């Protein structure tokens, strides 16, 4: 049987975790197509992977429509949305399977795939809950998923449970954990720190886009309680979270952390930065559907301190492969940082266990094989 012709659809041109997954996922599909609602670094990245990338004429600025906007606020956009659906339907007719990689891409793809009579796979990278989506949005998403998809791919049991709790059909769900490969690196942490001009002494790092629910402010509160520990914060406000970025800067000044906290902006060298720190902190306040940085740190032999919400407990095997702390608790986080900085004797075994677990459970190859199988059977 010839390989199906696949159309990958994504609403954003920026690259956060979900788009990094897509960039890996398209590897077996050289020569196939992607349809993006706007241009940006993702367009270049997918083109570099050998995809034919088409950018909508009507999608620019759509990413600024907040996920929790009411249906009424979205009304003036309806003409543009209709135009994108028309473009998408034409593209869908030239392909055998549609693969939507984001919530906004999915909603429009559901209409287009139905009109074009093509099977649709939704890669749901979010926890569908009231923290991130309005009630109408949740209802619409789940109804469309139930009626229009061949499969809903989720990265964790936590994401699957949330989808099913909202009324999603259990038999549609396929759990496919994110796969990650980290390039081999023989440099020592000290060499990397010197090269990248990172602070000396105890150093922790946070590596995710700046957003209130990602919890960087809790790290700042914890640092105020852990004198002598410096922190690098990589990541930018990718999806309209600039006021939060400004709040973080004000907090640094108010808490007197100016000489210990270093904002690095959006980086393309996270695995190398990660190897240079003494601990990686994953401070999300709301449940995470996955948490790529957890696996990246496990692969880099770096201790993980993560909030116990969403998929983190699964990935860290309930604390066997890293330290779990309650979400939003600066005191608990400060205590965990202090403990890890002392390098307790059990840490070496935990790091070894974490690396082996990351390699056996979260490889790119496993992810590609499973998703290719799902596309082939759609
Ligand atoms: N990341 C990056 N540059 C940065 C900050 C983060 O490339 O400056 C990467 C990070 O290494 C990880 C991803 O962005 O692979 C974030 O994924 P995660 O699952 O932690 O969160 P998401 O963005 O999907 O909510």
What does this 3D model show about the protein?
- This protein has 378 residues and is an alpha/beta fold.
- The chain has 2 domains: 6-179 and 364-377, Glycogen Phosphorylase B (Rossmann fold, 3-Layer(aba) Sandwich), CATH 3.40.50; 189-361, 3-Layer(aba) Sandwich (Rossmann fold).
- The protein has 15 helices and 13 strands.
- The protein has a 7-stranded parallel β-sheet, with helices on both faces. It has a 6-stranded parallel β-sheet with strand order 10-9-8-11-12-13, sandwiched between helices.
- Strand 2, helix 2 (41-48) and strand 3 (52-55) form a beta-alpha-beta unit.
- Helix 3 (78-93) packs across helix 4 and helix 8 (216-223) crosses helix 13 (330-341).
- The model has no long low-confidence stretch (mean pLDDT 94).
Question: Keywords for this structure?
Answer:
378 residues; alpha/beta; Rossmann fold; 2 domains; 7-stranded parallel sheet; 6-stranded parallel sheet; 15 helices; 42% helix; 14% strand; binds uridine-5'-diphosphate
Number of domains: 2
The whole-number mean of residue pLDDT values reads 94
Compounds present?
uridine-5'-diphosphate
Task: Return the CATH class of the largest domain.
Answer: Alpha Beta
Taken from the alpha-carbon principal axes, the silhouette is: globular
Low-confidence stretches: none
Which percent bin holds the helix content? 40-55%
**What's the N-to-C terminus distance?**
13 Å
Please identify the oligomeric state: single chain
Give me the count of strands. 13
Quickly give the structural class.
alpha/beta
Secondary-structure topology with pairs:
Elements lengths: L5 E5 L6 H9 L7 E4 L4 H8 L3 E4 L22 H16 L3 E4 L2 H14 L3 E4 L11 H14 L2 E4 L2 H9 L7 E3 L13 H8 L6 E5 L8 H8 L6 E5 L7 H13 L6 E5 L4 H6 L3 E4 L9 H8 L4 E4 L4 H4 L7 E3 L4 H12 L5 H15 L2 H14 L1
Parallel strand pairs: 1-2, 1-4, 2-3, 4-5, 5-6, 6-7, 8-9, 8-11, 9-10, 11-12, 12-13
Helix pairs in contact: 3-4, 4-5, 8-13, 11-14
This protein binds uridine-5'-diphosphate (UDP).
The site of uridine-5'-diphosphate has 17 residues, from helix 1 and helix 11.
